[in-house]
Each structure stands twice: as C-alpha cells, then as structure tokens.
C-alpha cells in the first residue's frame, strides 16, 4: 500500500516539471494515442492538398483522398478528440416541442492534462488558420477547384473550433459557478459557527 | 422511460439517456454506434412501411450518411467516366460532389422560403439519404451497362428515381402549407431526375 501511494504521488510532481520544459511532449500526455490521431489526420489533409499531386498523377484520387481526410479529421475532432483531450462536447438536440437547439457541454470527471488541451487547441487553431490562408491565396489566384477543397477544410475546421470554443466558455462559466457556490457555502459556515 | 434497450435505439426519444452514457465510451464503440445510426436512418428513410410518425425520427439528423453516399456516387461515376483524359474523371467527381450539396442546399432553401418549418440540416440529411437508390442504380449500370441496350438500362434508372423521389417527397410535402406542396416538391423531382440522368449518360 505504501509503495503504491508513493507511486501515485510521485507522478503528478514529475508531470509538472516536464510540462514546464515542453507543453507539447505527447508521450507525457494522458491520451497519447488520441493526440497522435488529432494531429495525424490534419497532417494527412495538408499533405494531400499540397503534395499529393507529386506522388499520384491522377487528380481524381487526389480529390478523393483529400475529401476522405477532411471528413476523418472533422469526425475525429468532434466526436473523439474533443471528448478525451479537453472533455468538451457539442451537438444538436431537439426539445419535446420539436425545436432544434444546440447543446454545448463539458465533462467534469475526465482524465485531462495540460499537454492534452494545449495540443488540442494549438493544432485546431493552427490548422483552421492555415486552411483560411489557403482559401485566401486560391481566391486571389482564381483556382476554382482548389478553392472548393481548401474551403471545405477551412469551414470544417472553423466549425469545430467555434463549437469547442462555445463549450469552453460554458466550462469556464461552470467553474466560476462552482467557485462562487463554494465561497457562499464557506461564508455561511463561518457565519453559523 | 424504458432504460433496457440502450445499445440500439428503437426510438429517438431515448437519445437523452444514451447521451449521458457515452462519457465512458471507447473509440470503437462511438464509431460503431454512429454506423448503426446511419444504417437505421437509411432503413427508415427508404422503406416506406416503417414511416409511422412522418419525420420525427429524422430530427436526429446527421450528415455522415449523405457524405458517404455522395462520395460513393461521385467515385462510381468518375471511375466509369471517359478515361481518355484524366481531367474529365476528376471533373465528374467535382461536379457530382458540388451538385449534390449545392442542390440539397437550394432545395432546402426553397422549402424554407415557401414557409416550411423544418430545420435546415434535417432536410439536407433527408435529401442526402434519398440519394442512396441513385447509388444503387449507378453501380448496376457501371457493372452491366456496357452489355445492355439503352432501353434496358432505363429500367433501373426509372425505378431508382421513382424510389428516391417517392421517399423524399413524402417528407418535403408535409413540411409546407398544402397549397404550396407542388412548389416545394418540384425542385426535389428535378434534383433526383438530374442525378439519375447524369448517372445514365456518364
């Protein structure tokens, strides 16, 4: 029992030291495999958009692969990565009346670390900006087909970014709510005692 | 509320319970659940006998099904396309892709402008799922089309077009006021007619 307790206490201290050295050290993240896939599909999408023309001569397969990578990236970030890395979720729901509403939720009980969330936000924001830049350059050079694929990439990335941003605002509001509740409780107890 | 059959939703009003459960779901469970939902919606949309409540099941829309069918149709038609120049194949892919999504957008916009009260995404989801019969027809023609005369090829085209149109018209017509039904339904016919014809001649 004693050695087990020591082992558990030791890990967080080590993690904090390493975090200061490198916020993006994936091997120390709570979910290294999921971090990898978060980055992998984005990388594949960019690689196939920029360089696949040099490897495969058929433009048809290039288009197919780009679309597949875009959709895999969107699905992974929305359903898997967001849930495991930052504990957030957004989706559309319907009220009993039949109206459609959007829900933005955060999970409290979820194994998270600073590395996970910094990897998530950096790469999502970076990818969104990069796709927006590609759309801009394609519009300036009138390359119609490239606009479609860069545009799809940009819109999917920004939609995810917006959804998770709204979730994180909800999370911050919850944290503030919890803090104010605790301070109220503390004051009440102090007054009563 | 029935909590027993939570793995496979028979009724989407039970989705509330499912959503709180999937905090602990593993990745493979998430993916399988989504695939099962796509299959369930496909069956619901395309087999008219199962439609009892006229569209309430569609409220839980998703765009993954339409994306899969759109990609499949675009790939089938572009593989079959004229292979003398590689650019025409990719043109066919891009045309089909843009056509399906822009077409669904325009048809939905038309229904909304006519006073229909439906969520934008629900309607796009429905139109996308109803592309599936055209997928079937494109695959049939791709495999056996070169051996058959044109008239024989028309038969699966007409059957699948009628199937798509019938499935989607039921929903679309129920959305708008009765005196505007034909105005809402006419673009849907055009949309599927064009897709069927395109898959025949490519």
From TrEMBL, chain A:
InterPro entries recorded: TVP23-like (IPR008564)
GO biological process: protein secretion; vesicle-mediated transport
Pfam family, one: DUF846
Membrane-spanning segments: 46-69, 119-141, 147-165
GO cellular component: Golgi membrane
Subcellular location: Membrane
Keywords: Membrane, Transmembrane, Transmembrane helix
Topology class, membrane: Multi-pass membrane protein
Family membership: Belongs to the TVP23 family.
The protein's name in its UniProt record: Golgi apparatus membrane protein TVP23 homolog
Automatic annotation (TrEMBL), chain B:
Gene Ontology BP terms: endoplasmic reticulum to Golgi vesicle-mediated transport
Annotated membrane topology: Multi-pass membrane protein
Compartments where located: Golgi apparatus membrane; Membrane
Span of domain Yip1: 59-198
Signal peptide: none
Entries under InterPro entries matching the protein: Yip1/4-like (IPR045231), Yip1_dom (IPR006977)
GO CC annotations on file: Golgi membrane; trans-Golgi network
Keywords: Membrane, Transmembrane, Transmembrane helix
Transmembrane stretches, start-end: 63-81, 93-114, 126-148, 154-176, 183-201
Main location (coarse class): Golgi
PANTHER family recorded: GOLGI MEMBRANE PROTEIN YIP1 (PTHR21236), PROTEIN YIPF6 (PTHR21236:SF1)
Family: Belongs to the YIP1 family.
Name under which the protein is recorded: Protein YIPF
